[in-house]
Structures are given as C-alpha cells and as structure tokens.
Amino acid sequence: MIKAVIFDMDGVIINSEPLWEKTERILLGRRDIEYNPTYRDKIVGLNQNDSASLLKDTFKLPESIQALIDERIGILVSIYEKELELKPGVFSLVSELKETGFLLALASSSPYKVVEFVIDKFSLNKCFRVVVSGDMIELGKPNPDIYLCAAKTLRVNPNECVAIEDSINGVKSAKSAGLFCIAIPDKRLTQKDFRIADLVVDSLNSIDAQVIKSLG
C-alpha cells in the first residue's frame, strides 16, 4: 500500500529547468563560450557537485567546482526572483494528497539554499513533512541515496512510496531506491528513456490520489 509521495522540485513543482539553462548560458557567456545543449540529457537532475563537474569538464573551465557552484547559484537566484513560477496544479494535488492521508516529502538535487528560497517564495512550508536537498546526501541522482533518505525520514519503506520526477536521472534514482515512479518528462529530453518509469503523464493535472493508489 502506498503511504507517501515524494516530489522532485525542479521541473515538477516549479518551472525551473529552462531557468537553469538560462543560468548556464549567462555563466558561459561571461567567458565568451557558446552554450552547447548536447550534454543536457546528462545534466538534468544531477546535484550541484556532479552538474558543476560536468559543466567544468564539458566546457574546459579553469575555475574550481565550488567557484562554479557559487557563481551559478548567484545567477540562478537572481533569475528566480523575477521569473520563477509554480507548475500548474501543485497546490490542488498537494492538498488532495494530504487530505487523503498521504505523507509528502520533497527530494531535490538543488542545494538547500535554493530549496529554501523556493519554499519561502511560494509559501510551501506546510506542504511537505520532509525536505531532502542535494547537499544533504553524499551521492546524488541517479544514485538512490536521496530517495532512501526521504523514505527513512518519513519512516516508511521505499516500496510504500511514489516518486514524481521529470528527469531520467531522477527516475533512475527513484527506481533504484525501490520506489514506484511517475514521470512527467521534460520535453527537451529524450522521451524514450522514460519507459522505465511506472507511469508517464503530461502534467501534475493528470495525477490524483486514485492514480497514486493504483500504483500500489
């Protein structure tokens, strides 16, 4: 029986993936480097250390990984303040699931500073019982650690949880942790890779309590 629903943040509850890409274009533009989207499928869903390492290696950047992370987060937050929006259906789905009795958690590859900013900006403080960010765990997505941590903190078994993800790295993380997974694929990514998810839908509006229950 499904007892908990664990949401990814970027691309699932906030429309942030294009803003991450915009951030990288600005960061690279400062160095007169043209953004190359060929590595996009690999980077979406990764934590800050892994994604900054990939960015550094792909574009041969001389800065340290930590320096790239700090610069990128600074750019991102300034963009978030002006442009970030919630995905449609977030509050209605969260409200329904809570009223139905599901435990809710957030498991995001973003650093806690960014997660906290989003939670405060959209008054999501009371929506999630547990919040796990990418800098709280050693190994990020596609490793299972973040979902195992969220399930453990909720005090439920992984097979009693459903994850909602938009990236293939996130889906792999949830499945390898033993969770059921609903994918809302980022349209910029290779769609066939999402076939490992238990269910693929177009948006949060396609999910309700009955859909969650049916997976268990």
Topology:
Elements: E1 4-7, H1 17-29, H2 40-43, H3 48-59, H4 65-83, H5 90-100, E2 103-107, H6 112-121, E3 130-132, H7 145-154, E4 161-165, H8 168-176, E5 180-183, E6 199-200, H9 209-214
Parallel strand pairs: 1-2, 1-4, 2-3, 4-5, 5-6
Helix pairs in contact: 1-4, 3-4, 4-6
CATH class of the largest domain: Alpha Beta
CATH architecture assignment of the largest domain: 3-Layer(aba) Sandwich
CATH level 4 superfamily of the largest domain: HAD superfamily/HAD-like
Number of helices: 9
Assembly form of the protein: single chain
Describe the protein:
With 216 residues, this protein is α/β, with parallel strands linked by helices. It has 2 domains: 142 residues, HAD superfamily/HAD-like (Rossmann fold); 67 residues, Orthogonal Bundle (DNA polymerase, domain 1), CATH 1.10.150.240. It is 44% helix and 11% strand. It has 9 helices and 6 strands, in the order E-H-H-H-H-H-E-H-E-H-E-H-E-E-H. The chain has a 6-stranded parallel beta sheet with strand order 3-2-1-4-5-6, sandwiched between helices. Helix 4 packs parallel to helix 6. The protein is globular and about 50 Å long. The protein starts with a strand and ends with a helix. The relative contact order is 0.19.
